[in-house]
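To whoever is covering the structure queue this week,

Two jobs came back overnight. Logging them here so there's a record in the thread.

Job A:
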Amino acid sequence: MKITNVELFILKSEGLYVNPEGSEEPSGPTYMGIVKVTTDAGICGYSDVETCASVAKAAIDAPKWSTEPGMECFDGLASLLIGENPLEVERLWYRMYRGSIYYGRRGVAIQAISAIDIALWDIAGKFYQQPVHILLGAKWRSKVRAYGSTLFRPRPEAMRVAVRQYLDQGFTAVKFGWGVFGKDPQLDVALVEAARSELGDRNDLLVDTGWFVERTPKEAIQVVRSLEPYRPFFIEELLHPEDYDGYRQVSEAVDTRIACGEQEATQWGFQELISRGKVDVVQPDLTRCGGFTVARKIAAMADQANILVIPHSWSSDLLTSASLHFNAFLRRASFIEFNTSEGPLSRSLVKEPLRLKDGYLDVPEGLGLGVEVDEESIRKYRIQ
């Protein structure tokens, strides 16, 4: 079996992503990239990628830079894969990484590599007639507890209304992030207090402070201590993603779990976050960290360091499905992130959207990623 094509389709939703000022949900991603890898055996693999899709497309479609052996360093990712065996996921990951190293290593190049890697694992599962979690090596669980991932509302009463809605939908955990948080410390505390009072003691509250609000480590410590009375399961993204020493300072000063990693990439980046940053929870996004090939190495490092892995999976049901396989593989799994948006790019990329059951999402049992991509929906929203 050989790879015959690697494509990235750019999708655009009908509305722009917005942060609402009321209790409504955002409309979800405005743009999204969908990677499709095709083989001569008629097996195709898919992944979404939450990045600047037009730039990722350029990285995939760029021509081969040189025909000299050993000179791969500016090559388009597709040119590195055509004619290769898609089952050699480890070798192909490094071939893409080395082949794009002069313009890549992080950012959009590793994000495009991540999506291609997920698609290759999807192909492998379909070829071997197994779900991805079995190929990864473990099925520790058949369902994963979900937390609803949403935005902070601007007023305490709106927070209470939102929490009631999520509890009515079956969630037993909710994460609020971004929105108005970080503009007024007193309001921040009031919003978190309102969420906790409505959630009660038996449900979990998670907080994403949004690193776009710039803080020193001591300011971040003050934020955590102001919220600790409301028992957040974790507090996420307090500092700039590369402020490893700052994260260590915060983690060592507080009792609450500190989470970070949705912006991190490669096993080398996560090794720095784990060993130097000393965070309690790493949050690899499969479409940003390097795909399944890197994620399983992150899991091993986290296991050795005795910290939690809770993957970031906000974009769509396609990424959430991939993340469910990763959660099934993890020896310890706490949560799956579930984007509460009903936007078309969040909910319509697979034919059978994921459904919450008693606060949990089932791990897909079908071949590969275990979900069927809705080609008609891709055609509907495709602009390139």
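Job B:
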Amino acid sequence: MVLTPEPRAPGKGLWAAELPRAAWMVMTGGWHRVLAGMPQGDGRPILILPGLFNSDRSNFAMRFYLNRLGYRAHGWGMGRNLGNRTIGGEGEELFARLRAIHEEAGEPVTLIGVSLGGIMARFAAHQHPEWVREVITVSSPYAGDPHATNVWRAFEWFTGDRIDDPAMIARREAIAAPLPVPATAIWSASDGLVAGAICHSPDCRNIEVTSSHLGVQMKPEVLRAIFAVLAESA
């Protein structure tokens, strides 16, 4: 029997190239073509969750284009993402924000999460599927060992959590379980911070892109993939 090797963190070359690749993407993105040919949105509410140490500012482009298409895109409004320090030990702050949007809109909310934000989106969907329409994760390492990333030490530093803590392991396993709502994972095999292999799973639709981790939420290819998924689930 041939054993499949465990995913490893991206190599030093990809890691070192993260900033140059992100900068090149911003300079050459082709922003004028992002919305070309994309169908109009249906006004559904969308909650966008940022990555580790990022705030709503990191997702300004995604919110801008989603709103231009006719969706109702919301930031999470909780400042920088410091894990449980921000959303509460049981996720209560995140759940309160999700519930408020759900009640205001009168319909389930689509969750789009970038990196750690995607992990949180899956957590929320497992806990409160009645408030969630679907989940889209972007470069979110929810499906494997966090040691297969180059950011696990930063995660521990910013959040105060330890990835080998039994409670954290149990939560990771629960988050990786099949979701009770439709799910899509957008990921890159050339990601320099997290292994692409742990950013998707068989239970959801998988869309591979070519991207760095930094700035992935602004990459036109990623934005257009998100728009297409939303259009198909209208």
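Note for Job B: The chain has one domain: 13-26+42-232.

Please reply-all if you pick these up so we don't duplicate work.
Q.
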